[in-house]
Amino acid sequence: MSIVNQDYPGEIEIIVAYDEGSTDNTLKILNSVKNICPSHRDLVIFQHRHTTPFRARLYCLEKFSGEYVHLFDYDNIMPPDRISKVVKHISKSNADFLFSNAKIIDKYGQDTGKFLTNVEQEHNILKLLKNNYVDINTIVISRSCAKKILEYCNKIEHKYFDWIFEDWLFALLCMKHCKVYYMDDTFILYRIHNANITFRSDIFTYLFNKERALKTLLAFYIIEYNNLSMAERKELQKSLIRFSNFLDKNLIEDLSFVKHLKMFYQLDAILRNIILKL
Predict the structure, then answer these.
(1) What is the value of pTM for the model shown?
(2) How far apart are CA 86 and CA 6, in angstroms?
(3) pLDDT tens figures, 35-55
(4) Does residue 196 belong to any structural domain of this protein?
């Protein structure tokens, strides 16, 4: 409802990607909300086959009808002036890809006083290749930029890439092909709870996200390698090596009863440090 209740006076098209694999009452709730939306809030329910968040995002990039689309997850909150400020930033910057930071709230909606990522004033693709600092819920994309993203992502249709960090891949692609702008005066309220795929603290989620990071970098490698500068290639290769090491220190400590894994980690870390210095 935080999108419906934006103070922006113009029309907002709200596209909800509804996964047909859902087994709850989501569709019924969406239809009830659709019936009470004011005339300048057009709720469009797009039903799609069961898939991953990455593939669902691509569906949304195909379906929106305006000049810009703001990507957003259902469990987070937009401040009431978010869209108004986004429109002002677009007018000022004429950017194709805009993003901001996010403030972390707990499952009860209380501000924790922390930001989701560390976004430096100077951001570039070399820094982004080291680690992702762009969250999907803060991203705004122009129609022309979305068209480019769809074109590039069609090169990685294999199901191996179904589970990647789509915000990281989108941001990397846009830093190569679109005008990027950081909005530092409007922040999404990002809810942390036990159902978060990215922020659950168990070891299996940790390993899963390591794999997602590696697949994201591999996807970018496949799409862009021939268009990268030497500096970008070197940074990408370093990150591929770093994220391919699933057995890092934290994991080894959790599995400390397996002594030979500690030895493997120590040898593996030495080898990777040598390679990264070449």
Answers:
(1) 0.86
(2) 12
(3) 888 889 999 888 888 899 999
(4) no
